[in-house]
Fold each of these.
Amino acid sequence: MRPVRSFTKTADKVFTMVTGLCASSPIVFLVVIALMVLVQAIPTLRLMGWKFITQTEWNFGSLYGTMQHIHGVMVPAGATYGALVFIVGTLASSVIAIVIAVPISILTAVILAYQVRGRLQLSLSILVELLAGIPSVIFGLWGMVVLAPWMQHSLGPLLIHIGTVIPYFKGPVGTGMGLLTSGIVLALMIVPIITATTRDLLQQVPTLYREGGLGVGMTTWEVVRLICLPYVKDGMVGAVALGWGRAMGETMAVLMVSGNATNHLPQNIYSPTATMASTIASKLDSALGDASKMGVHALAELALLLMVLTLFTNLLARWLVSRTGRGRRMRVKVSA
Amino acid sequence: MKDSRRRSRKVQTYIWWGVAWLATALVLFGLIDMVGSILVKGVTSFRFSMLVTLPHGFGGGLRNAILGTFELVIISIVFSAPLGILGGIYVSEFASHRVANGIRFLTEVLSGVPSIVIGYFGYLLMVLQWGWGFSPLAAGIALTIMMLPYILRNTDSSLTQVPLAQREGAWALGMTRFQAVSRVIWRPATNGILTGVLLAVAIGMGETAPLLYTAGWSTLDPKLSLLHQPIGYLTYVIWTYIDMPYDESHALAYSAAFLLVLVVLLIQVVLRLLVNRRAFGRN
């Protein structure tokens, strides 16, 4: 037998090492991104402290005036960075998106999983997943030229009537660019995420359980409601959290339809708004003009906050989704 | 009494299924309305001369943006394809169970980082700290971070699907693990790996947020230099020219959107057909 040449052995070792290095790159990127954003955010952390998340006024200060020293950092006169408006905007628009998207996607997933099959199922699934592949700037463009005018002229005036029951729906509707429009665009963006995950989960429900439901006389819908949906509950919550994280981090679509508010909290669901992500994108020019670099640091803190928020929802989501896959059968057996 | 209860349950079932179908129709309507309105506006405003002319202040052509998008995608693929494919090989072939799951998990986490944060990170580190300025290389690396998880995940999952018997066959011939991967195991996984790379291309073409802070914008053709040269790209045209008050600039934005949707949808449709056909063939 011919012994393995030492060259082959070395090649094997080198290859394993190189692939190992490449496999560690996502981790390196994650750590470097987090560190970079954190380090750059330190000056604003020192300047603003907790006021960063409790104050509504965001002002780059007089960029041509003299600098002041506050808490050991140089800032332009009058500069103050309060991100409450953007935090509220991020949470409000993503929650609106979730409220719209969750029922729609779960119902769509039920249809895709149980009501259609074969070629129709395949093509409908592809169509829904196509939505996930459309660039966000296209969503923004559509929201701007189609959805916003429709909101201003048709849907908004209609929704005002709900205002007598829920005050947040009261007018004025404004230009159609605002919280609700952002929420609808975001909802459309996260529908494919929640739908695809929920559909996959629903297809994992054992046929025996569904047949058991039919066997004791449930209608087809009662089988879905009382057997299938509870079975995939955890995974579904995970899918929703996944969509939520995506909605909070979305930039371009929101930037184009939100109306870019600063310093004002939204008064009703038609108010112009801004999210953390869209603010980072839209304040580029002002930050560039800031000689003290404080604007850059402030935006870095915003990025840090956004990253922490989305990482948290993502971790929660992955944990919940993976929990459904594993050990699920055991627990069902125990509880049944 | 029993009869009326049975009837109400039946009626409820019909109503709920109706609502579910309505929801599906609503999603499809949203998709069709969006793609349709972009395509219609795109077709009516698109001129073939736009492909070869440069933009001016508020109109003109898209040559610089098309070339720039190509350059950025090529740069980012040059980085992300080797990183992702080799990384995927490691996760599927060499890593222990625990390490593999850890890397998979963190890759998912990386794909969940908002694109604007990645762009701003690129701005802080490469544009400012390393002094590259707005440059194709900085933008390409930002895109690389966006695309890497897709390539890694697809490589990993398509390699994992290769039957163990094929590996054992290769090892039994006396191949080392490297030889087994490089001569045998990758062959059945080629389609899956290519799917990942193409998907990443589609994603890279459509991204805007990571580029705002790293690529800048230029109305001139991309230069050969990788550093200190702002570069134009298609998604930027859509975003800025639609905000200008002129019909000509709107036409340019719609045309850019039209081109982008056409290319991205084409890639996505072909990919999903391929992927799903494979999945259905297996069952």
Amino acid sequence: MTAGAPTLAETLTIYVARQLRDDDVGFTGMVNGDASAMFGSAIPLAAMYHAQLTHAPNLTLLLAGWLTNPDISKLETMPDSEFMASLRDLDADALINAYPAQYRLRRGDITVGFSNGAQVDAYGNMNSVCIGPHDHPKVRLVGPIFQTEHLAFFGREIIMMPHHDWRNFVEKVDFVSAVGYPGGVAGRRELGLDVGSGPALVITPLCVFDFDLESGRMRVKSVHDGVDPAEVRASTGFELGDLSDVPVTPAPGPADLEILRTRVDPRGIMLSNANPGEAR
Amino acid sequence: MTEKPAIKSKLISLSDAVSQIADGSHIAIGGAALHMHPMAFMRELVRQRKRDLTVLGEIQGVEVDLLAGAGALRRVESSGVGLERYGLARNFRRAVEHGEVVMADYSDTMAMDRIVAKGENLTFWPVSFIGGTDIPRYLPDLVEFDCPITGRKLYAMPPARVDVAVIHMPYADERGNVLITERRLMPQSQDLVYARAADRTYVTVEHIVSHDFIRRSPQLNHLPAFQVTGVIEAPWGAHPGSMPDFYDYDEGHMEEYVEASKTPEAFDVYLERFVRDAGDEATYLERVGIRNLLKARKVVL
């Protein structure tokens, strides 16, 4: 069961787990659709649960903003809906049913979050509202939902993009529904956004991005094993600079893989349903 | 000695309740995405051919899509409209792209806070976190101002207009006391925010119960009768969405719904069969079919 090279989903799960701290309160929503569910929900959930089992036993996992520290390993199928019965009845520390919830969003109780969007731009601004002009959109999307708050209030946001394409990695998004670093960290401060919030990483099927906090622009931090940096450049709608020295995204060690396969996702329902690499 | 007034019954029929909704009303609708929406009430709005409605709430779904597909909507004021695993809400998407429905885009907490502001009778709610977004650009009633205490740049967001709230709940008595099962979900608490903010509140329920039933579990009465305008018995009232402790969402019917919503013509056929020609909720449920309904009852109690 534990034999075999890591899949991309496993590599990214362990990569994300290593970003998490013992004192984190981590928030992820339920995202749907094969590749989107993998990037938006399965990898963040598995990573937080893995961190709880290894270096971060005190991490608080907030599923969909209302289920605290659920036992992810007991999931029989991957939930595809935010308030479905199987999720409500999952073994957990707390079922938060009050509105407003117990966590103090505006005060920064949530220290790490995961989100995705239809578009993300060179400064980490996100769009889940529309493609084309707002008044006569070419595609009307869902809406700002909780994305605005993710990037404004959560300590650090890990943007999980299931598709890496020049059409969704653009120089400027069609509608800014959540703010990255226009003008860098200084720019965020001028906009009245709290220092210490904002996107930290952007993870795609091809690479990991972080941000130059002075200019605010996204830059390639690593490319995944087997990915040609030229493919990253061709798939990105903004300038990436010199990619000749970019390292490879680190692979998980055998001990981490073993825990992932036997204790986090023992039924193989989270990380095996789809190969996110196919979503390119 | 003056005569003692009789205990009032707030129990009314679905058609009578909906006949009290004027065209052009601003309605806060309970539920989220595929869950806990007052769908029986939505279908009756369509049967009575209501027009120019403005719908508000947070995370809308199949209820807004149905109204959009029936041409009953003018405006949506919310943080989003979507059908979760079924993707974008196609009727809604088409109506916005064709300019038939206007979407006012708020973030999740903004969408709630403007309803809270209405319930608290405030003149505005301060919003601190939307600098740099395009949200205020398309919401002309927001006013930028400097905080009089700290000087921080804020937006003043006026309270929402909420003529009516419509929510779907487990139980109510004839007087209008509304009881929620113990292991409720967060959207049901948000429904209570809508109910307490609105000028008038209609509650559809799975079961009408006796007043004694309510008094045996008063700790679960989250909406005492004085806050309720009318209660309506509507079993399977959230169908094809879910209702905690009663049924999960109906996958079979949702697939049929989503397929129909791909074109206006197909959706009109859907509306005729399941809503308009069906004429009432009993016929709707007959046409949905007992097999779909039984499958949706796979709820662990």
Amino acid sequence: MADSSVIWEESALKLLETRDRYTRNAIREEFGRDPEKGAIEIDPAEHSYLTPVSGNRFSVIWQRYAGRVLVRAVVPLTNLDWLKKVAADTKKDYVGQVVKSESKGEITL
Amino acid sequence: MVHGVGGHDHLSNLLRTYQSFRANLQSVEAPITGEDQIPGWRLTQFDEGSTPPVLRLEPRVPPPPGGVAAVCMYEVNYSSFAGVVRHNHRLDLTGLFVGLDLAVCSASQRTRPERDPIFGAQTADVARCLQRTAGVFTAGTVPIIGLPALLFRNYIGTLVALFTRFFEDIATFVLDKNGEQLISAHLDRTLATIDTRMNPGDRLVIAAHSLGSVVVHNYVVRQWTTGTARLPDTVMTFGLGGPTKRITVSLIREMRPGVVSIPYGLREAIRGAFSAAGDVDPMAPSPSYAARLLHNVVSFAPTLAVMMLPIWVVRLSGQPVAWPSSWGDLLSLRALGALALFMVYVIACAAFEVVRTWHRLVTLFR
């Protein structure tokens, strides 16, 4: 999937702005190359996914929307092994809680 | 974290470990958050004044149920007083490695063909490999490297210091029983202090390297048997040290005549000529500077004789030998370059021998 099909929401860019320029570019470049690489489905109904980037140091939370990728948030979530094992509801709740906490309540999944 | 060698203070090593998680310490540029290996963790407490100093990290995002809610980093650092122990009771590294060489030599002569192989390898072959390694280490301590090292200390000082510190520190703990007791007592006290700061359900993880691995191993064995202190839940080690033996005259005299026993026979003959024959007296005062200098000069004589061989070959072939005619020739750029090349050659030989022996050992045990 090409980078042009990726749309970054304003709130996601705001979260990304808290990182330095090198990290910002690296995350955007890596995610844009292949958003589905290593992706974990977090909400089948909403078509929401989580893709680990930058050596599993950050996670990009995104949604498939009209054939495009809509990035909702970028968070330093690294408990991926645990996340893969838990039930869908727990997964959704946990990621939602993390995103809400990181964005100081601005983003709700 | 239990460190091994080094002359650092308590705070510097703890911070170095922490900083290496969060930035590239080798970079000359200012640290950036992009280098952070643990961006999901934030520093919530740093008490540099406590004993031992502590860093507390907590996850930026809420931990999952049963996940790690906080990590407290402490450091067990005995390097400064281990240095004092070592300084007060100096070890001669050449003697240390000659002792190891002699022990291996003697043991290899005692082996019999019917003896069970070690880990599937022939005992005699393993002994030969170990002896070669001991020989290389011994060569690494004699003036042949030491002399150029004085001139090029700015460039190889770290390597020489690492070599010396590593073996001296290991020996401080393994051979020096006073040092062992002091370091053990320090570790017991530090871990007892850390234990008072822990809550039920917390996990104690010890990461140790080089001498620290030996120290922690002894701690675990000691506490396992006495059961007086808390045992770690996890121990990670990054290297081990090993014991060696003193040089005993009886061991030399028991050796069968042969190639390997020649250096020891020669050693005793020379020591006898200087009225120094016999076992080392542990209570004897340290030899004077002049005695140590004489010892180094005599030790260097065989090496010097071999180094002169090319000159003798040139002379025998009838070619004139280009001796330096003045101090200017000796201290010229060309002479220093030749010395540097020679030193690189010697270090390369030693490195080659160590790698070759290691490869041989791996092949034997395969």
Amino acid sequence: MLARPIRAATPAVMPYAALLPMALTVIVAYLGTMLWTLRTSFTASRTFPSDKFIGITQYTRLFDNERWMLSLHNLAVYGLLFILACLVIGFLLAVFIDQNVSGEGVLRTVFLYPYAMSFVATGLVWQWLLTPGTGIDGSIAALGFPDFVFDWIVDQDLAIYTVVIATVWQSAGLVMALMLAGLRGIDADIWKAARLDGIPAWRVYVSIILPMLWPTVATVFLLLATSVVKLYDAVVAMTQGGPGTASEVPAKFIMDHLFLRSNIGLASAGAIMLLVPVVALLAPYAYARSRRARSGA
Amino acid sequence: MANVHLRKLSITLGGKPIIRELDLQVEPGEFLVLLGPSGCGKSTLLHSIAGLIDATAGSIEIGGQDMTLADPSERGIGMVFQSYALYPTMTVKDNMSFGLKMAGTPKAEIARRVGRAAEMLQLDALLSRKPAQLSGGQRQRVAIGRALVREAGVFLFDEPLSNLDAKLRAELRRELKLLHARLGSTMIYVTHDQVEAMTLASRIVVMQGGEVQQIGTPAEVYERPANRFVAGFLGAPAMNFIDGEVDLHNRFGAGSLALALQEAMPTGAATLGVRPEHVHIDAHGPLHGSVTLVEPMGNHQVLWLDCGGHLLSAIVHGPAQYRAGQALRFGIDAARVSLFDPVGGGRL
Amino acid sequence: MMAQALRTPAVQAPVAAGARRRHFTPARIGIYVFLLGAALFFLLPLYVMIVTSLKGMDEIRAGAILALPVDWTLEPWRQAWSTVCTGASCEGIRGGFWNSVKITLPSTILPILIGAINGYALSFWRPRGANLLFGVLLAGAFIPVQVMIYPLVRLLAGAGIFGSLPAIVLVHLVFGMPVMTLLFRNYYASLPQELFHAARIDGGGFWRIFLHVVLPLSTPIVIVAAIMQVTGVWNDYILGLVFAGRDNLPMTVQLNNVINTTTGTRLYNVNMAATILTALVPLALYFFSGRWFVRGIAAGAVKG
């Protein structure tokens, strides 16, 4: 005889209660703030939030703003170069390290340590390195090129490229680490089969390995792209957006207008615009992943 | 259809010698199986024939040419791997033709070879699929197809059936045997499964610890094993081993178990090896024993008998029922036994 | 030629048995040259940082950024630590160091705890709707912080805690939650579900099973999470700048103040010393943790 009937599985309450912080974070801190910013972007807020709705005026003002347009241009140029350089350098480093080289552990440590440094430290060091006169160009001039000067960092048109150099230095190691993990996950027998088929090594990488690494490359691309959109600390540390506003980027534009120039409405419009590339990246990525999950791959 | 000749082949990996001065002749058209437990060096040997592992010393001759230092793609071989190693992002057709394309083979020739292999392996319906969309057995066929299109003189198989379930394994085993009969190519096949070895091989090379224990036809290695290791490795249930002595009258004795031997054997300590199928339950048999365990196998039963402290397995056909603890009498077919040196394990 | 050397030792014409293949082909040398060149590029800033911080200002003004110090001196380090001006006061960057410690410790422990609980609930209990919530949480990790900063400022100001230690810790919790939850959820998903089933049959409830079964098995992932969170929080600039308040500014903020807002002569050696001091904790953590750091990157980058 059963002592007591086993209780029907009532949904346990505890898991929901335990997830409360997560729910609060998502609803209030993520969604709530985004909606607030969205709302503000339609108002005439300046130093303080206002309730006066002015439609999309802030957005038109935004795109009439020279500094904002310059920041977008800079971000596009920076983003393209940064992502390309990181992918290529990171991939090459991974491939070469994977060739059974001696001292692999040391090399990996050397390539990845910059990632442990903050953007601020990175920006400051490279600012010092690329200072015209006392920086690296001084040493190159001493080698026998007395007129050599590397003044990109104070050049209106070239300053943004110095930020590329500094941040690629910092992030290429990360790409290398992820690509290396991907390479190492490839069945060794594939290499043997390719050797037997007489396929030259470079062709194996291009036609077989890289297509197999597609998910890894996609993930890396996503990580790099989001860090491009968020670019702020490195610019502040390295060039302060200068000379003048030559190396301005959207994140800095928004921060300046929120806290220094007291124009919350404009800044909010800028922030919402910054969401556009992020959504444009996330949507296909999430879609591709859910399709793969459904097809059971 | 090429021959393979290994002369004094030695392979050292990571400082450890895996293969020591191995000599082996593979006849054209034969199906040679390298059989042995994990770590015996059979896979290493196969990889060195393929050129994927460098030989430390000695020479490898394929089809009459010295291939010791040649690239894998230049040795005139095809290879099938345990994990199939199909290129995952290419279709079956591309998998089979990629190597030929790289070698500059004309398109018409590629189409002809792929078509022939597809027909032989029933892959026609699968040509435009990707490996992820195939079952294990289909993938293995594609792997074989990829080796076939190379129209090589020698085919190497590295435990190709280990990743399949038992039923599929038996099916593909038969297909491989038919394929060999049809193609007549030289095939070198690595496995740890003695059933595969027995059913497929024209000759078996039994290996242990990097050294060849015996080379012979399946019948030879099964009925006249060269040493205790070979004797115990082939056959299931394994051969029974009983330690005892051979006396001056050519009789083997081990306590209450005594057997008159047919071949002349040196006197002294010896280990008797007798296969379960040569232990006959017979009401008039000379030996006594009691049943400790009965294992019904469907079409036969395996009886485990205690004979004066010695544990023997016996295979019994027919409907007779046995119970644990039952006392019975049995005999051993003296014409089919083997005797081994207790020290060293060599055949006496 | 390069292609052959990659993954394939170069082929010699077939020779008599016994001849050995050469392994030092030009292409293999090329690989080492590339790697060593890259290593030099990566090490250059570190070298320059250290070398500059040990020179006197005369030497620095003379140029030769790559040269070793002629007259070694630890004075820049002393100045960086105790006397440089970081905005309001001139007490050196040590204040920032202790602020960073004050911020990093709770901002590591709390997110790890919450992340573990979240991961545990998501992978073992799977309440309805939780996965959707988690998906949105993860998506939130990609949103630029500028979208959320101002409303958060208003919220915290409204709660009366803006510009204080609790504020910055809370903010780090909010922004650290996605990665922490992901780490723990993936890790727990790789543990055998039978453990959990057995514990439930034994009568364990939510917290019991967490404390007695799951948490003791979590050591590896806690280490990885701690390394990632300490590095992330210590290196943070923008959140510390906005939310920590003047008394709690982390080292990164103070460092930037020291270097980029000083008027008068720039003391490059002091600047570099201060930079090293700021980067020291995460770098040391990186060099000592080795494999764990890489594990963290791989685990965090593999989304679900």
